């Protein structure tokens, strides 16, 4: 390791030390009860809630995946994804946050998403909770794998070491940190990491614009590539065996592809995923006072607008500055790292690239914690061992966390994995499984337990079927699987609900109570 890389390594180690310190600080409180470990005792402030929700949501794909898409395909795919996410962020905070916070507190003090859905419909047999826990386990294991891929790529690129070793080392750090600190440590560090992420993005963007000769020069050069800087067409890199071809020292692009109305709607549907994202919904549930969510919404929306714009722009600028440096779709996700290393002196580059580490940690700890809590609270405590003590539930959460982490590490072994693609699948899974029933449970008094089961199963299974089978047909069937799966889930909920008996008076009264409480807090 040369002197420059050593300085980067030291800067990142200092950052890691701070994160571990946060975990150790909260260890005693986290170990006091499963409620503290899993949801922090509903004690979060508005700023921590906002920054924690967005940092845990965006993950390493914001600094690697999204810029990588912009570098590889140009503006259209990346910008429509970003617009969909920004709209989804705002609507989720506006429509879901306050009502969910109130409902989970009233519905037997639910502290996990499976708990809430089961308690909302007064389940005796925990079928909804079991389905929810299993889907959370599946999709969050995939999600955690995407984070381990990100940290593996980061350290491998930085220090020229084997990807597998770096991926395992990064995963072990995340596991240790989440194991000791729980939700409070995760939320506190997410706040710090959200700040690091947005500063890193803005600094790299600003420096990149200057290095490229100004914004007008970037736009002019980007337009020279067919479809690269257009909203309704997409660039087509010419590849052989996955490697983009080079002629006369320049990367080769084919004729621009069309980016039609259906594709735009499909890409915008990323925003639908927010209604079913457990890591975001859990932050809504954990805020101390529901009245503070208005401030949280404003902070979160501004953070997303700045971060998403910067991430897309970095990919565009990176292609102008380094046209032939990253010649595979997977390598394109390293553009943020490449720009950071070239632009800044080593110590500052280490701090900037800690933004990637921050994004990865803030997401993976959330994923691991929520997945382990779903299994320990719902399956272990709710079904297998109903007389389990609080301490037993707490330690089962930690054991499950380790098992999930090992599975995620196995998925992340392939260093050619594309972070954006992994995240897209898991995002669709959560959005279609939980998004529709979350909205219906909060806003439709008539919805029933049967409708909930039908919606969750149809939504989650449609994601798998559409992705693995139907999308292969191409054409209109090539749309992002979240959109058709979300629609299928909504239809299933409505039909199954109307075919089943009305909810009990007790359930309807609780719904009206939550509705009135939300209105009174406006």
Q: What is the third-level CATH name, the topology?
A: Sodium/glucose cotransporter
Give, in spatial order, the strands making up the sheet with the most strands.
1-6
Helix content: over 70%
**CATH H-level name... which superfamily?**
Sodium/glucose cotransporter
Shape: globular
Largest sheet: 2 strands, antiparallel
Classified by CATH, the class is Mainly Alpha
- Indicate the structural class: mainly alpha
> What pattern of helices and strands is seen along the backbone?
HHHHHHHHHEEEEEEHHHHHHHHHH
Average of per-residue pLDDT values = 85
Distance between the termini: 57 Å
Helix count from the secondary structure assignment: 19
- Total domain units: 1
Polypeptide structure, described:
α8 packs across α12, α8 (163-211) crosses α14 (346-384) and α13 (335-343) packs antiparallel against α14. The longest helix is centred in the middle third of the chain and has 49 residues, at 163-211. A hairpin with a 2-residue loop joins β2 (239-240) and β3 (243-244). The mean pLDDT is 85. The chain is an all-alpha fold and 522 residues long. The protein is globular, with a radius of gyration of 23 Å. The strands form 3 sheets. The protein has a two-stranded antiparallel ribbon. It has a two-stranded antiparallel ribbon with strand order 2-3. Strands 4-5 form a two-stranded antiparallel ribbon. 74% of the residues lie in helices and 2% in strands. It has one domain (44-520): Sodium/glucose cotransporter (Up-down Bundle), CATH 1.20.1730.
């Amino acid at each position: 390791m040369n002197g420059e890389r050593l300085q980067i390594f030291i800067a990142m180690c200092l950052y890691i030390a701070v994160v571990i310190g946060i975990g150790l600080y909260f260890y005693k409180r986290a170990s006091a009860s499963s409620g503290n470990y899993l949801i922090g005792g509903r004690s979060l402030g508005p700023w921590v809630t906002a920054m924690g929700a967005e940092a845990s949501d965006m993950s390493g794909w914001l600094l690697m995946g999204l810029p990588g898409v912009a570098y590889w395909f140009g503006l259209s795919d990346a910008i429509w994804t970003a617009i969909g996410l920004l709209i989804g962020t705002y609507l989720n905070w506006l429509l879901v946050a306050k009502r969910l916070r109130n409902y989970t507190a009233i519905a037997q003090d639910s502290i996990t998403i499976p708990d809430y859905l089961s308690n909302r419909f007064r389940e005796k047999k925990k079928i909804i909770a079991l389905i929810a826990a299993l889907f959370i386990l599946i999709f969050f294991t995939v999600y955690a794998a995407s984070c381990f891929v990100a940290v593996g790529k980061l350290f491998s690129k930085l220090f020229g070491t084997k990807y597998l070793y770096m991926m395992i080392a990064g995963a072990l750090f995340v596991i240790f940190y989440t194991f000791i600190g729980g939700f409070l440590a995760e939320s506190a560090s997410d706040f710090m990491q959200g700040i690091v992420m947005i500063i890193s993005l803005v600094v790299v963007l600003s420096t990149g614009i200057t290095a490229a000769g100004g914004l007008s020069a970037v736009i002019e050069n980007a337009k020279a590539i067919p479809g690269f800087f257009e909203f309704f067409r997409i660039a087509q890199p010419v590849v052989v065996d996955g490697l983009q071809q080079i002629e006369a020292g320049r990367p080769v692009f084919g004729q621009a592809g069309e980016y039609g109305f259906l594709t735009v709607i499909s890409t915008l549907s990323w925003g639908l995923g927010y209604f079913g994202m457990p890591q975001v919904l859990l932050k809504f549930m954990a805020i101390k006072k529901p009245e503070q969510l208005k401030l949280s919404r404003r902070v979160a929306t501004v953070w997303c607008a700045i971060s998403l714009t910067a991430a897309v722009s970095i990919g565009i600028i990176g292609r102008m500055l380094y046209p032939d440096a990253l010649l595979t779709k997977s390598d394109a996700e390293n553009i943020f790292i490449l720009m950071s290393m070239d632009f800044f002196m080593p110590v500052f580059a280490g701090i900037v690239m800690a933004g990637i580490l921050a994004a990865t940690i803030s997401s993976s700890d959330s994923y691991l914690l929520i997945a382990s809590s779903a299994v320990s609270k719902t399956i272990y405590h709710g079904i297998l061992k109903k007389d389990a003590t609080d301490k037993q539930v707490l330690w089962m959460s930690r054991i499950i966390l380790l098992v999930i982490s090992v599975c995620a590490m196995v998925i992340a072994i392939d260093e050619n994995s594309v972070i954006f693609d992994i995240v897209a699948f898991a995002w669709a899974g959560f959005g279609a499984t939980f998004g529709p029933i979350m909205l219906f449970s909060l806003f439709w008094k008539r919805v029933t337990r049967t409708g909930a089961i039908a919606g969750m199963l149809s939504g989650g299974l449609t994601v798998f079927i559409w992705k693995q089978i139907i999308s292969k047909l191409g054409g209109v069937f090539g749309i992002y699987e979240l959109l058709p799966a979300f629609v299928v889930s909504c239809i299933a909920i409505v039909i199954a609900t109307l075919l089943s008996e009305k909810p009990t008076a007790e359930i309807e009264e609780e719904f009206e109570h939550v509705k009135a409480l939300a209105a009174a807090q406006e």
